[in-house]
Amino acid sequence: MPTHHHHFVSEAKRGTARPAAYTSAATRFIYALISYWRAFQEQRQRENVRMALRDLSDRELTDIGVTPAEIEYIAAYRAHDTLRDNSRNLGMHSGT
After folding, report:
1. How far is residue 68's CA from residue 54's CA, in Å, rounded to a whole number?
2. How do the domains of the chain map onto residue ranges?
3. Residue 59 φ then ψ, to 5°
C-alpha cells in the first residue's frame, strides 16, 4: 500500500481523518491556484503579443491591417482568445 494512502488509513482508524471542511478548503485552494496560473499565463501572452507587434515597423503593421494605436486592444483581446482556445485542447495533448 502506498505510504500516503497508508497514512490516511491510519488516521481514519484512529478517528483523526481530515474533516470535509479541510477537503473543501484544499479544493478551493487548488481552484484559486489554477485561477492565478491562468491569469499569469494570460498576462504573459498579452505581453508577448504586445512586444511582437511593437517590434514591427509601421509598414509591416499596415501590411497586416493594424495601426500602432490598435496594438493595446489587440494584445488585450486576441491574447485572451488564444489562451481560451488553447485551454480547450489541454486534455487532447499527451504529456510534455
Report:
1. 8
2. 38-90
3. -65, -45
